[in-house]
Design a protein that fits this description.
The N and C termini lie far apart (73 Å). The protein is α+β, with helices and mostly antiparallel strands. The model has no long low-confidence stretch (mean pLDDT 82). It has helices at 20-32, 34-37, 100-114, 133-154; strands at residues 4-5, 11-13, 38-43, 49-54, 78-83, 93-97, 117-121, 127-131. It has one domain (4-115). The chain is elongated, with a radius of gyration of 22 Å.
């Protein structure tokens, strides 16, 4: 059964109660409120858009599906997605989390991972990540420096 949770991880709607529809109305209000739904969003210098949001609905798998005797796990209610640019909803990457603290840390991880790339889309729709020019030049300089150091030792 689907379970809905607030940002703090507390149960928002008890689907077994007779007045569950009232709880769903409150959840729906929050889902329409960007100030509540959006945890953090930013456009990276390379144009990529990173968005972390509260989902509300638990996207985790029931542990019983995996034969686990443990009946409880934290709900998976936050998600970070990376997009080619703001307004283009073809995701490049996705991460999900249980708590807002994890979601914020995961957002920063996604930013750190993706800020070093330029992303292009080929005519057939394939997405290609290219290292940034600065990273490419830095790598080339490092290889050249180690070559010079090795060459000087030999002469």
């Amino acid at each position: 059964m689907n379970k809905w949770y607030w940002r703090d991880g507390s149960l928002a709607v008890d689907m077994s109660s007779p007045n569950w529809i009232d709880g769903m109305k409150k959840v729906e209000e929050r889902l329409k409120d960007p100030a509540y739904k959006i945890v953090k969003q930013e456009v990276l210098p390379n144009g990529l858009f990173v968005s972390t949001v509260w989902l509300g609905l638990d996207y985790g798998f029931p542990l019983s599906d995996f034969g686990s005797p443990v009946a409880f796990r934290q709900p998976v209610i936050f998600e970070t997605m990376v997009f080619p640019k703001k307004g283009v909803f073809h995701e490049l990457d996705m991460y999900r989390y249980c708590t807002e603290e994890e979601a914020l840390a995961g957002h920063q991880y996604a930013v750190d991972q993706w800020k070093q790339y330029f992303v292009t889309v080929t005519p057939n729709g394939r997405i290609v990540r290219w290292p940034s020019l600065l990273q490419f030049v830095g790598d080339a300089f490092g290889r050249f420096k180690s070559f010079l150091f090795t060459w000087r030792k030999k002469t």
